Amino acid sequence: MPADEKKKSAETTKPTITDEDLFHIAIPIFDDALFNVIQEIVSDVHISEKKLRMQSAAIQAEAVALTSAQPSTPSSANPSSATKPTAPPIATAPPAGQFNTTAATYDNGKVTLKGNPLKLQRENLCPCCKLPRLMFPIVGTGSRVPEEVNREYCKLHPFIKKPGHDIYGNPFPVDTGKTTKKEREALRKIERQEKDNTPGSADTGTADAESTAGDPGVKKLMAGGKGATYVPWQTCPSCKRSLLITKFAQHLEKCLGIGGRMSRTTAAARLSGLNGSVAGSTQGSRVGTPTPSQANGKRDAEPDSDKEDGPPKKKARKEKKEKKEKDKVTIKLFNKNGKADASKRLPKSSALNDKDKSRTDRESSQKRDRDGSGIDDAPAKKLKVKKDANSALPSITASAQ
Amino acid sequence: MADVATATPKSLTSAPLASPKLVRNKSTLPASTGGCINASFGCNHIEEFHKAGENSFKTLRERYEEIIQVIRDKHPIVLQTCLNTKNVAITVLRPTFLCVQCPFIYSEEARKSHLDVKKHSFCCKVVNSRNGTLYCSNCEDYVYDPLFETIRLDNGRKRKFDEFSEDSRSVPPNSTHVPCRAIGLRGLYNMGNTCFMSAVIQSLLHNPLVKSFFLTDGHKTGELCEHDNCLSCSLDEIFTEFFSLEKTEGYGAVTLLMNSWKTAEAQNSELAGYKQQDAHEYMQFLINALHVTNGSLTSDCHCFFHETFYGCLRSDVICDKCNNKTTTDDPFLDLSLDLRTSQLKKKLNGENSKGAANESSMRLEECLKYYTSKEKLAAVDYTCKKCATQGVSTKQFTLLQLPPVLSIHLKRFSHLKDKSSKVTTPVKFPLVLDMMPYTTLYHSPETFTETSSSTTNGKTNGTTSDSSTGYSALLSQPREHWSPKLLSYDLATVIVHKGEMNSGHYVNYSREGKQWFLFDDSKVVLATEAEVLRAEAYILTYVVSDVGKWVAEDEGDGDD
């Protein structure tokens, strides 16, 4: 770096240079270095901003051309319409003619600028969705309420900086397991209120209450992630059970039978009881695993709520299984989805607001469908079990769904 | 590198994943005819120049290309020497301006008078960062013409695949619109002690090279993949999810976890199981697994991961008695730098007297310097093959080949005989790291002049001898004239370990473009450069600054 070189040369010839000289040299060097740093930062912003404006001007001019020319070129129809051609469309010819906007001129597919786009082009348009970009974050540091709240903006918003919230303005997930019942109810109340305030649009999401309550328009613009209480459920790819994502690793260890303390055999034993429902697809090695005598001690090591579905004794279970396998399966799954776990998980799920819940359900059922498509008959049975649960225990299912 | 991968046709294949919301976003504006339209010229003056004559425009373009090459190759001192208003050559620190229409360099003040007198409209600007943007005197502003910007961003190299530009125009109308928000900024849920995994996955997700590998269908998933419990497929799934859906909440990387455990268990690795793990260990494991699932198992593997992450470390041992040199080259996946010994050594040797002022903190460059410095081996440790005696010898590590993605692991967990502890020494690391001083090339250039055909360019078999920027050309210059840009690396990711030796939490700082983000499991927040540089780093990932250079010198097996 030249700055260093100057300094170095100053050092090497030090005997002839007084401190005062050095002082006079050092300050301009520092000034220049600072100037360059600032220049570089400004230049970077200038480059990105001006390029965006240039492109926006072009997009706008093209849009004007397309709108004016649309009647004559119906082929450039909105791709969202159902009439998407089966054969891949060839790039349609650009509309002919000359069109003007404030910043640019469109002339037979080519766009030229009229002047400096930073002066002439007022807003940035997204090159992908062609919608205007928000220029400021809607909440948090440096936020501004957009001039036209009801306009549709590009979904890529400026990132939000707000304590306790992510870059999309969604509050951090909170561990509902640790909150008290009162707190959960309060949360639920807030979320319900919010929901009432936002009519329609299912995906405006749960914006946080305090900051946006005053401005429904801003809320509408929010990214629409999951609420604070949202902790997703996940279907285990191995055994197809549905469980909280935060407990997944713990479950998977047992499910795969990894890590000491005979967990593999324990898991195998437990899962063998499920053979009827999880039709062999995941068992693989486990089916053939010779099950040595299951001492009760092993099961004691297991903390989970498997007391009911775990095999009390191998022999007894086998007999039962032969006798009334179907019943057993139903009871088992019923226990899993309903009673046994409901007692544990009910508080968490009840803390979800209605909207989230319905979405969770929808999603989880979608996931199940997707996952289940690979295996033979598991999904059908699961559905059946669900129905059973509904009829048998209306009180629980009502709060869980 | 492009900031955002916009339309990735790949995501279309995952039909069930595609959100139904995509369609609704289709704007009130009619669909574009295809591609992203842009203004044809940077300003109306360039347009006029273009209209005025094909030839003069061609000259302008060629001249600009030349200037960009000069900016790329010449020493800064050349570029910073310019004419001032009195037409006297001076050397300045501030930006200088290279005129595109005449062969002079002007200072900022002289630029104005020059343009007024000569009626030259364009000046190519040069600043210390050497960004080479074009200044239009009529606009009195910098202009970013699509054509000139392409030249500038390609660093004056000729584009190889220009002929595909026609094709690229027909891609957008034939592909599904990827939501604008799907730019991969999502968290990963902690599934129970899996923060080590989240931190490592995020570093891969925000690695521009890995990203382009997966988003260009680098790994064939589904039925095309013949590996069981394939980790590449699992990672591909996450890439698809992150870069094609509009979701903002976290993601549960269940298949990756399951396949990691299954693979780890098959290797009898400690990594499988529900407990806290070492992120460094997991990173090595994961990259190795990715390499296995994408390449061959032969020794000369040229898979993407091998070429991207693996470098080569040379160790020279010189016997003090007979001066016999034994050289061994070993591949490395990351550099594990010692934090404690170097401190001790500094005290013991007293070689670094100026560092004495601040003993408690270290600089990354110091760690690297120590790593590649000469080290005395005790007599018991080494037996010379030539003189067949046990004697004192000198050992030195140097970097023979540098990978495009350089991972640096700081040994924060020390296991001594009596106790294990966490080293909390703060390490200062730079945003841009020059790796040249640690290379074999730098330490013993003579080995390269001798065998110029050997692996010299840091990546693979050197085809550099004929290249103008080749190392043979470089070696002809004195070492102090080597440009610092030759082997500069940009900081891409910092993995931080918080907490104690046996329990703690991993977070990840990663960069998208110029913006830093903090990934803390499912939480994603903005981070500042200062915050990143203050972090107590555990693993640092540096990505080579000028990828184009590597591609240009290694045209044979470009991945995309």
Automatic annotation (TrEMBL), chain A:
Signal peptide: none annotated. InterPro entries: SAGA_su_Sgf11 (IPR013246), SGF11 (IPR051078). Residues 275-296, 392-401 have a biased composition (Polar residues). Residues 69-95, 189-220, 275-401 are annotated as: Disordered. Residues 69-85 have a biased composition (Low complexity). This is SAGA-associated factor 11. One of its GO terms (cellular component) is DUBm complex. It is found in: Nucleus. Belongs to the SGF11 family. One of its GO terms (biological process) is regulation of transcription by RNA polymerase II. Residues 297-312, 353-373 have a biased composition (Basic and acidic residues). One of its GO terms (molecular function) is zinc ion binding. Keywords: Activator, Chromatin regulator, Metal-binding, Nucleus, Transcription, Transcription regulation, Zinc, Zinc-finger. Pfam families: Sgf11.
TrEMBL record, chain B:
One of its GO terms (biological process) is protein deubiquitination. It catalyses: Thiol-dependent hydrolysis of ester, thioester, amide, peptide and isopeptide bonds formed by the C-terminal Gly of ubiquitin (a 76-residue protein attached to proteins as an intracellular targeting signal). Residues 186-545 form the USP domain. SUPFAM superfamilies: Cysteine proteinases (SSF54001). InterPro entries: Papain-like_cys_pep_sf, Peptidase_C19_UCH, Ub_carboxyl-term_hydrolase, USP, USP_CS, Znf_RING/FYVE/PHD. The keyword Ribosomal protein does not apply. Its EC number is 3.4.19.12. It comes from the Eukaryota. Keywords: Hydrolase, Nucleus, Protease, Thiol protease, Transcription, Transcription regulation, Ubl conjugation pathway. GO terms for cellular component: nucleus. The keyword Membrane does not apply. It is an enzyme of class 3 (hydrolase). It is found in: Nucleus. This is ubiquitinyl hydrolase 1.
